[in-house]
Batch of 3 targets.
Target 1
Amino acid sequence: MKYLIAILFILFDTNCYDTNPVAIKGIIDFNGNFTQSIISLNGEWEFYHNQRIDQIEPNSKFYVQMPSLWNNDPGFVGDGYGVYQLKMINVPKVPLALHIPEMYSSYNVYANERLIAKSGLVGNSKEATIPSFDRNVVGLQTENQEIRLSIEVANFHFPRGGIPSSLRIGEYSAIKAYREKGIAESVFLSGAAFMLGLYHLIAYLIFRKDKPFLFFGIFCLNLSLRPLLINEQYLVEIFPSISWIYWQKIEFLNFLALLPFFYHFIRVSYTKEPQSIFSKSLNVIFISLAILVVFSDPIIFANIPVPVYLLIGAAVFDLTRLLIKQIKLGDKGAKVVFLFFIFLAIIVLIEILIERNILRGFHFIEVPGFIIFLISQAYVLSLHTEKLRVEKNQADLEILNERRRNLRLELSFSTERERILSDLHDHLGAKLTDLSIRIEYLKPNQTLTEADIDFLKMDVKNCFQSFRDTIYDNDDFRIMTEDFMYGLQLNLTRRYARTKRELRFETNEHTRIQLQKIDNEELKRNLYAITVEIATNDLKYGSNATYWNFDLDENGLNVKMDVDSNFKNSGEFSIGTRSIQRRLESLNARWTENNENNHYTIHFFIPIPNLRN
């Protein structure tokens, strides 16, 4: 904020000129020399309303402060004409020149009643007046130390009449350099804004749907015209064939387009919410105002800045609310933008006060202020680009991880298919072989006993059951890829229900969710195999209800199974197969089992690294 304040003072310093000496009661005294190379001819000028230079009535004069709009001082309507006069005394005898700004909206400049500059055609009516854009630098004859400066101004085509900017006098070389410097600054600022706009439009084409680049690019391109339309109005000199009315339309359309593109740039940069009512209303209002500019005369559309200023205030409020909201969410870029946004709001306020002739003796500082702001926005957009790059890398990494997961799943499915084929071969194949052998022993015309029929029924039933179990196991595996705990619970529930045993399966949502996030298929496969084999032993030797509990903490997974046992000897009902022990050892698991008082309990803990992350 300190840097911004310092920059603001620099802008004031470089755009403000010492007005001493100043005119008092229509007279300015140079005391025979210039204290500065360039002096603004500000102060009290004589003004004769609705009079021409050859019709002046001395008793009808007013004293007005220059720069002067006669709408404000002394308070006449915009239509009309008049004469401004200033007597310069003790003028030094050095080559002098006068820098003449744009006036509303035609003028003749006289020095000691000799015409030295003109713009358009000054007349007493709208039909006799031709408006024009002209800024002139003219030399002054200094044989006499007293010069009477008279300026006829006529306006019938613009809402405001008079001289909105200061006239400046100085040594001829200094005034000429001042004019050339103004043009050079305008071209430089225009080029800077144009290059920024072009760069960000190209960036938009590369990043495609990233709208901040689009809005910022169009905003910069539009802003690049502004220095050439105001200040020294160099664009008017390049294209002199374009009429005054069309230049007014171009300038006002350029002015209108600044706010909506800037507003939408900030909005889409810091929120993904759909357009608000204010945002949509802003679009409609500015499109309507643009149509008004295109199809009406300057005397009408030149009044639109006042409602636009109100919209600017509303937009500043809305964007301030949005940026403060993003700052509270921890967006560092929003903090930088907010500081420069406040700076820009001050610049725009100053320009409005200058344009309305409330602040006098200043140049327009909007464009330098905008360029400083644009540099800050380019920096913020570079942060935005880096953010996009990181997000893209994260997205690419996620795609790569997803492909890896798919490959692992495909490998798991392949392994599972091999297991299913092996199970079908080992179990169903063996049962079909037994059934085939039993059928081969039957002799033609042999009468089957009831026992033979029961054996055949049992063999067929076992074949179907074996086939059904294999298919169920495959379904369970598919379900477990989507929700491991649910698939495991489904497998155990079905197996216990088939033997008419009661199963009480306990877990919690945290365990279910976190276990699914673990990207270790080997661990899950071993856990599934261990659980299935323990359940097989329980279904062989246990009785009544079985309690299974799965609980995941920050260190790993705890699994516990409790069941009544029909065996008195703990050695007969133990963890059983060596394969279960090998699987637990491969997972670095710890386990304990206990079989006392016809009750069997097994508990094992599987450590899971990096579970805290």
Target 2
Amino acid sequence: MFLLWLFCLPSPLFNVPTATVAESSNGQMLGARIAADGQWRFPQMDSVPVRFEKCVLYFEDEYFYLHPGFNPVSISKALWNNMSGKPRRGGSTITQQVIRLSRENKGRTYFEKLIEIFQATRLEAGYSKKSILNLYASYAPFGGNVVGLETASWRYFGIPASELSWGQSAALAVLPNAPSLIFPGKNEVLLKHKRDALLFKLFHKKVIDKTTYELAIEEVLPGKPQPLPEVAPHLTEKIRKEHPGKRIQTTVDFALQNKVNHIVKEHHYILAQNQIHNLAVLVMDVNTREILAYVGNSPTTADHNNFVDIIEKPRNTGSILKPFLFASMLDAGEILPNTLVADIPTSVNGYAPENFDKKFNGAVPASMALSRSLNIPAVRMLREFGFQRFYNILKKTNQKAINKPSDYYGLAMILGGGESSLWDITKAYAGMASTLNYFNDTSSEYRENEYVEPTYLKSHSENPFGNIRKTPSVWNAGAIYETFDAMQKVNRPSGEENWEFFTSSQPIAWKTGTSHGFKDSWAVGVTPKYAIGVWVGNASGEGRPGLTGIQAASPVLFDILNKLPKSGWFKVPYDELTEVEICSKSGHLAGLFCEETKKEWIPINGTRTDACPYHQTVFLNSTETYRVNSSCYPLSEMKQKEWFTLPPVMEYYYAALHPEYKSLPPFASDCLREGENLMAFIYPKRNETVLLPKNFDENINEVIFKIAHRSPETSVYWYLDSQYIGSTKTFHELAVSPKPGNYILTVLDDEGNTLKEQIEIRRISGR
């Protein structure tokens, strides 16, 4: 009998599915999902609120803390009452009721009662009174499919059990005894009678005072179950999939989540006017990688996929990866922050990228190319850096959606040729900021795993970042700082343009991205404390005019930024920088011929770069109108001058945008000169195929051949093979209608300088 008693309880005592509950960092409910058996049964409570404890004990089991699991006096009274033919009454203790609940209400026979008493004594021997009371409060029925006190408190009053008043506690305390009393429009009189009788007993026993009693009996009775909070529905669903049936305390900041929800709702209303229906936001702590706000989608309708959690869905990246390339080249010492990079017509194996505005700048500082998100410099920089190297770096940042071989993406990767998720992109930006912070806050050290997965779990590993080391996991602190400095200069959206003049404004390193066809718009930014990621678009993939990073996503980012505490700006990582002389005009290391220089901090590896290639010494005649040399001009009368000059194609576009730029004077006609590159083809490029499309009238359109010449006023003569096709002056553009075939395109200027290019001309049908 002892062995039977010792092992008579199942383990666990309750083997039933529970609901999934998500809580904020301070314990407030974010949302919940029903248990697998269709019951609203929250996970077991940790403790029972004092008010409910008093109410349930005085209603169900006043001697709970005195009996060994059953109450002989109550049982005797119940037997006598039932045998006398009077209305039936129960004599079960709370401990017995816990046993009955665990046995799934197998009936109310006398034999069953004996089993309950037998097991109740074993429960009392193995559990504390508080634990037994917790079991009762967690698994008692409260009407319909509502099980447990915490569930009932939320379903009937919309508050946690810890906040229940005396009237509310009393109303819930009487329900497990008769859960059918909860039925909207019925049984309210009986429920009120039971509740008020319990409150009077509490008053009579001096548990509550008269004022409390009088206020409590006036409280509203529970009625129709209320909907549970849905503060972070997509995160709640994510938790249901990853931690089913658990109560999970997250890292989400409840107040911030509500603010972000409000911002998303406002912007969704505006965006929906342009048939843009979906929006996702992720805010995380840079230094801990904890999720502070999680909005998986906008409050749209099922027709627009409102249940889809976009945060982890791969989307076209647009230009959002450009800062990674800039940082990579700085880290490798292949550019300096303001090195001039070419922005000219470019074709690589038939791939011809274009800037968003369809224009060319000739040459721009690399940092400006990043802040203005110019496409052509990015493609040329990626070609120079090497796509495979860049692909390997992206893999180090754990971009999970970049899962195909590198050859699949090609140079288009930097303009949106690949996909990533808002989760992974925001994680990478946060990893950059964390690398910089940690380097500055320690003895110039790094951690091996800065690009760790973010977490929404309040109780997580204290050190997910790995061991300390002297080398960075991806980019060094100097390269990251210079990248962030360039990103801070990105033009802010309307209303934020002059942010630096307002003391209330926060600095932020940020970047936008827009995919081809206006299907995805991004805005991601970091401060020393926070990383904010925003995606706007249609989950269906439908593109819309105006769906760009600057117009659609960035206003959301800055509204969220304005709700965050100020973070200041990143500290300068001097141990990863060195101060050098920089050529003011080219951004390169100052060379021998640079007239204007300035001191500038650059990443240490930047000292490997070449000195300025755009400055040279030239010799001019006395009036500085021509270049001369000893073959045509007296040495004593020559003027030596340092001159900033760009290659012909770069100069062609650069000079038009920079009035201060002065082209090199031409050589005096009677001077001998060594082979200088005076001309360059703009279109077509070497080995480029020229297509002859038909227009809507079935006529073949003309092709415009174009060159840049150092001396525009010079006449240039054009030939296809040996056939003369025309001449140009000043603007060297020639419209021709050649037949399909392979040709040698030749240009010849007045001074006999010749340039040749092999081209192929094909005909295609217009559409």
Target 3
Amino acid sequence: MTFYFPEQGKAITVTFYKDNYSVGSATYNYGEEALLIGGTTASSEIRLQAINKQSVTLKVCAVPAWPTTKTFRTYIHFDEVYIKPVAPGELESSDIKVTLDAPSTSGFSSGSVTVGRLLTFGGSTITADSPTNITEDGGKIADITLKEEVAGALKKNDADFLQKNTVKLVLSPGFSWDNVTLIPLGGFSKDSVAFAVHTERDGRSALYLKINNESSGSPGQLVIKASIKVDEPLTTSRDVKVTYGGTNPGVGGERIAEVTVAKYLVPGLTVTAKSALDVVAGRSNQQIGSFTIAEGMPGDLPQGRLISLTLPEGAKWNQVPQVSLEAGSGVLEFRGTRDEGRTVTFVVKAASSERAVFCFKNATVDLALGAPEELTVTVKGPGVSSTVTVAHVQAPVAVSAAGSTVRIGVQEQPVGTITIQENLVGALRTRDAAGNRAVLKLTLPSGVRFARIPTVKVTAGDLELDATGIKLDDNDRTLVIPVKLSSATPVEKQAGEQVGSTLAVEDILLTVERAVPEGDITLEVSGSALSETEDLFSPSLNKLTCVLARCITPAPEEIKRKVVFTVGSTRYQVGSEEREMDVAPYIKEGRIYAPVRYLAYAVGLTEERIFWNSEDFTVTLLTGKRVVQFKVGQRGYVLQGIYVPMDAAPEIVNGRVMVPYRYLAQALGFQVSWDPVKQAIIIQ
């Protein structure tokens, strides 16, 4: 390598050997400093220290003697470099780069420069002009240019050039070479290269080049002008590519390069997502990602046609997407909004003479708490109805419950802790849109209520609650929690994940009414602290849900003894025990009526499992597996929601609901019999 100092007009050549290096006539070992500019080694202004054969240090040890008002420059010429043998596949890059590393206080800049390019054994490359557009009729493709890196890189191949020393350009599946013209340039003469089209074993069409004469004097170039055919009509648009490769030493491998030479177009619009952003449910004016609508062919969007963009339930447009052209021409104009803000429409004001691609960007949306996790836009237009994902929706909080079991008709039943975790800092707000104190609401389903105000506390983070304002509302079904100060500091969860604060609702006691069905008790979480879009969406969309507990019906005691009722008697027998009632069974129109309440008592149902509705004259009996309803005056009863007809209707006598005893016993699942001699009803 040579160091040239223009102010001195001096060039110094440095030669590197295996174990040392020389500067001028002096020889130095690696690690020693050599004089470049200056009087003596001790007082030299500029020195060179070779660390090894790959790294040298240039040291400016004193102010140069020449005028310092001029910029100090040195030119470094890499006269010759040694390249170790290496396979092309092992190279990270074909560029030979030199890295310059200078201290920040030195006045010199650091960086990397390319001083050469490593030519692999192949020694040839191909490039292509901009891709053309073709249809099912085929057509002209982009011009392909093949270049040798050095003269003679592509070796003369054998007469059987389809088998040995091959040079080939293979088309994408579905396309075939048609008309081909070769234009030799550079070191190639007129007859240097010929060609033949051949079908590969995989069915792809290949253009084989026959190298009749190697290039001489200068590297050869070859311009390939061609058209292609479409083997059969294709239903989707795609890129048409050419793969360059072969076994000729000047190629360097079966698949050395790939270029796009055409774009196959089919009629119709294509919708493609460009980006999908992260947004938060329950927030307004959230920016979403961009997407494109592309014509398959020019004219797919004729003038006057409409395009609609529709959001799913739980989302509304806030700012309409901006439209920009990425290709072609044409004009789209905003037309209006419908579907309560879920759909925006655009009209084609001017059609495109070329294949147009429109980009929709910079749009914002308002989201309900119940917005879907993947926010999509459904695009409808001429010949298209497609859905594209534009955002990933995260709930502001995660709600979970420890899980418990409660029973129907029982008061003050304890259930596990409810945990509310902010998924992001500041998820729970302190003020609503009107400036009032924002609240978090936890609402139980109908028939279930809080027996008292639970304990609410912040277990992690710096969120602050208005403890004095925590209360029960809506007939004790809703727990209202005012937020005093939003969280501001992230809390590290696990694996470095950062979240907001954590709330715990503890000491929960529930009262469950007798009419509550078996199954999950679902808690609804809502409120102005959680959502700023409450006024924009229905309550069913502005809530989060969590299963708080499982409701089960108390199992009745198993009947192990016989129960006997006697017509005309107010006394009845349960096993060996005799009991009293205030109305006697009787016979009417061939049916034996007995008081429903005492029949229920006799088979083991308690007061909490017998429910009388005086408004519609309905009695409901709850057993471990069944819910049975009888209505006065109605010839039928309801069992597990299914109507079962009877030939007699319940009636009221002396303030008691009398039911044909056989239907009641059967509905509850017990065996019944009749003793005509003793006029006795027997239940077992």
